[in-house]
Amino acid sequence: MAERIVCRLRALFSQLQARLHSLIQRGVGSRMVSGFILVALLTVGSKAVSFLKDAAVARQFGTGDELDAFLVSFGLLTFLAALIGGGMPESFLPVYAEIAHRKTRMRALRLGVQSSGIHAVSLLVLAVGCWFIAPDFVRWATRGFTPEKQELAVSLLRLLLPFMVCFGMSYQLGAWLRADKHFIIATSAPILVPLTIISLLTWKGDSANVDTLVAGTVAGAVLQLTLLVGAVMCHLPLEKRFWLRCLRLWEPGLVRVNRHAIHFLFAGGIFSSAMVVDQTMAAWLAPGSVAVLGYTEKVCGIILAVTVAPSCDVLFPYFADKVARRDWLGVRRQLFTSAGVILSAALPAALMLCWLAPWVIQLLFERGSFSPSDTQRVAEVLRYAALQIPFYILGSLASRVVVAMQATQFIIWLSVIGLVGNGALNYVLMQKMGAAGIALSTVLIQMTSAGLACLYVLRQIRGKLNA
Question: Would you say 185 and 42 are in contact if contact means Cβ atoms under 8 Å apart?
Fold first, then answer.
């Protein structure tokens, strides 16, 4: 019996070694593998700069009222930008890949121009609406804030509206560049936001305040959008005929993009609202709880930056291409392989983060206004938040396949389950655990969502293969 087990283990090891050797041999020439490595390295660099920014912000503001007000305003606008900015790009990329594969590239480019124009108009209309509803929203969402703190949050929200428009457009243009397998600019452009913030905080020195933080955020988003616009324009034809056709002839695929975008907007609004729900409910707890949650999300983002971000950015166009070609075996094989490789690195990293949480927080943030007691508060929450990492990775990969299949009904139901479950678990767990209960609620929701998404994808692929 023991010899049989040893033989099986040796055979399994030999098989894994052969696959790894094949992957290494093909990796240098594989656009997907090299793209993943490139995006991972660029994302690590971007996150490193982002953490330098977070450290500078922590040193200047700690977990004080100004940062709480900024994070509530910033969180709402980031959510809205991701909602509007995620709906159309999510529906755009699969249709773009299908038109480029089955029709002509010029028609695909025309679809990109027209969908980007509609996207920009939608964001501008949303910004006007946010200006007027800002006082009512802040009063509802920040019941634990003082009137002065609420007034500050309203002012910051309005000042950050240009950031929302630029950030939302960056989603669309970044998706377009990734659809054409141009990953460098799309991945490196976000670094301009933290770089600009760091530059302004350094320039202002001890006189820096929350207005400096707002100015850096807006200026960085403008620079990011400018870079992406330039990158997209470099790949568009300059002929007058092309642009006249973009204005006069609507690409038929745009109807499908808009129809699916409404579903993705609805689903994204439900599911992505988890961040707003978490911040809103954290504002009901002890002062500084919103900032504590913000710091834990940033630390978890270290691992997610080198796993989820590059894998989804690079694999999504390839998933969309395989779905357009009806290569269902290729979709399943690519999902299994990528999930196994990424989880094998992310799971040990998540466990290490749970173990070393106090040391990590002390190293990253404990300086200036960020005190040892702040370190203990954030580390306690981080130990729970880090457990979401493997489930988040698995769910993100499976959801890329779901989006490529344009299975909007399932996405809506999954989002509803996530929103209702998140709010209910937050309320129950935060009663005794505080902010740590909100983090644990996120873990349970991510675990449920990942399981449902994987089951759905495998069932759909099995059905299509049998058909």
Answer: no
